[in-house]
């Protein structure tokens, strides 16, 4: 699949590269799948997008992803403009205060093995994100 740059998928399943205007490939499907398996909920950002227009909700999720996955520190996103995100002043989404989102999931009773797998699947840099074959090779899905 050739890279594209248009907006696709629903707001909560949308990946960082789409939100930040980077080219996207089929790696976006892995991100959306990872979002869907998190806590078996419809979307991990549903709690932050209860009010506002569709555009405002998308901006909020983009800001939360930038914060939660520290996108500014990743080489892949160094050429992105984060000024719109900074203007929103969002300090979290999944991360609550100083607690990393993975620690929060473990504290909620999600088995650490599941959280480690989810962390690998939700790799914000699509060039480093697991492929379908890599996911299958882990054996993680054999239990299901």
Keywords:
Protein kinase domain-containing protein; 144 residues; 42% helix; Kinase-like_dom_sf
Q: Brief overview, please?
A:
InterPro entries: Kinase-like_dom_sf. By secondary structure, this protein is mainly α.
Q: What is the helical fraction, as a range of percent?
A: 40-55%
Query: What's the overall average pLDDT, rounded?
Result: 81
Q: Report low-confidence residues grouped into runs of 5 or more.
A: none
SSE pattern? HHHHHHH
Residues in β-strands, percent: under 5%
Q: Please compute the radius of gyration using only Cα atoms.
A: 15 Å
Distance between the termini: 29 Å
What is the number of E strands? 0
Structural class designation: mainly alpha
Please tell me about this protein's structure.
The protein has helices spanning 16-19, 27-37, 54-68, 83-88, 101-107, 112-121, 132-138. With 144 residues, it is mainly α. It starts with 15 loop residues before the first helix and ends in a 6-residue tail after the last helix. InterPro entries: Kinase-like_dom_sf (IPR011009).
What order do the helices and strands come in, and which of them pair?
Elements: H1 16-19, H2 27-37, H3 54-68, H4 83-88, H5 101-107, H6 112-121, H7 132-138
Protein name: Protein kinase domain-containing protein
Organism: Aspergillus pseudoviridinutans
């Amino acid at each position: 699949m050739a890279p594209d740059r248009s907006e696709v998928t629903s707001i909560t399943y949308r990946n960082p590269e789409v939100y930040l205007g980077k080219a996207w490939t089929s790696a976006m499907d892995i991100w959306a799948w990872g979002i869907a398996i998190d806590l078996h909920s419809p979307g991990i950002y549903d709690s932050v997008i209860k009010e506002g227009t569709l555009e405002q909700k998308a901006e909020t999720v983009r800001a939360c992803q930038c914060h939660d996955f520290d996108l500014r520190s990743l080489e892949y996103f160094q050429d992105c403009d984060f000024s719109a995100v900074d203007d929103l002043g969002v300090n979290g989404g999944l991360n609550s205060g100083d607690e990393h989102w993975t620690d929060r999931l473990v504290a909620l009773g999600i088995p650490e093995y599941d959280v480690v797998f989810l962390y690998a699947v939700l790799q914000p840099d699509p060039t480093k994100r697991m492929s379908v074959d890599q996911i299958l090779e882990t054996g993680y899905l054999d239990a299901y």
